[in-house]
């Protein structure tokens, strides 16, 4: 009986040891299959993803053909290929212009201010909502905080103008009632960044917190129960259990936000912009619109060169932050 059992166990071990050897030829066979065979084998999946691929090609990759406008003196008569090739002249002109450093400073200051103010607040909100024991209260707060995300930018700016109007604004009247002289929120260059950033935090914080709440819901309750048995306080459990659980997602979102740091909200900036606050509200995106479409003589090539310069800087920042994140936290986009 013992001998038969031993032989049976040995046979199982032999089969287990043989599995990787049998798996390798299958993997090699799958790699050597032709593209046509793979398409025929999973054609339903490829058909499902086909609309997204077509959209990407038509709206993301095909327009890249027009990037050459940045290297030409483009005219509608000459077209893309018939206009004069000037190389990097438009980039040199922008970098050497008197507007370069003010535009770059305004864009970076506004974007970094928005990142510093807007990135941690959804995390704090998600941790606070996850710690609330009364689920009804938590759901009500969630509804109130993420509802502003569905309001369009135009409506938000209209609300800001109505609330902070120097003559009829509720905020200005409230400050006057308590004896405070209301500042010029809409025209003072010093107030433009604060109004822009904190109205954006109000609009997006609740919706952004949903991602972190989804990550927190995957934390095993046994970890918190074991920490309670060990005498860990709520803050300790939040620091050692909850924050490590959302750290990979937080790093991915941080990398994406840094990648778009040169592309601040064009629509909102343009709607809040006026001739008095141009000292801080004129950013690269609005300047491209001004010189490319809103000037008496549109400068298509110059505007395209400025936009391409902004995109290249954003790509460099994305790659740098992704590399740094992978070295520090072992989490990244790729």
Task: Explain this structure.
The structure is a single chain. It is built from 17 helices and two strands. The model is unreliable at 1-14 (pLDDT under 50). It has 334 residues and is mainly alpha-helical. The protein is 73% helix and 1% strand. It has helices at 2-32, 35-41, 43-61, 79-82, 89-96, 100-118, 120-131, 135-146, 153-163, 170-177, 189-216, 221-229, 234-259, 266-272, 278-281, 284-292, 300-328, and strands spanning 72-73, 84-85.
Quick overview of this protein structure:
The protein is mainly α and 334 residues long. It is built from 17 helices and 2 strands.
CATH top level assignment = Mainly Alpha
Cα(first) to Cα(last) distance is: 56 Å
Number of helices: 17
Strand content: under 5%
The share of residues in helices is over 70%
Say how many strands there are. Answer: 2
Mean pLDDT: 85
Shape: globular
Key terms:
17 helices; 334 residues; 1% strand; MetI-like fold; globular; disordered N terminus; two-stranded antiparallel sheet; mainly alpha; single chain
Tell me the layout of helices and strands.
Blueprint lengths: L1 H31 L2 H7 L1 H19 L10 E2 L5 H4 L1 E2 L3 H8 L3 H19 L1 H12 L3 H12 L6 H11 L6 H8 L11 H28 L4 H9 L4 H26 L6 H7 L5 H4 L2 H9 L7 H29 L6
Antiparallel strand pairs: 1-2
Helix pairs in contact: 5-17, 6-11, 7-11, 8-11, 9-14, 11-13, 13-17, 16-17
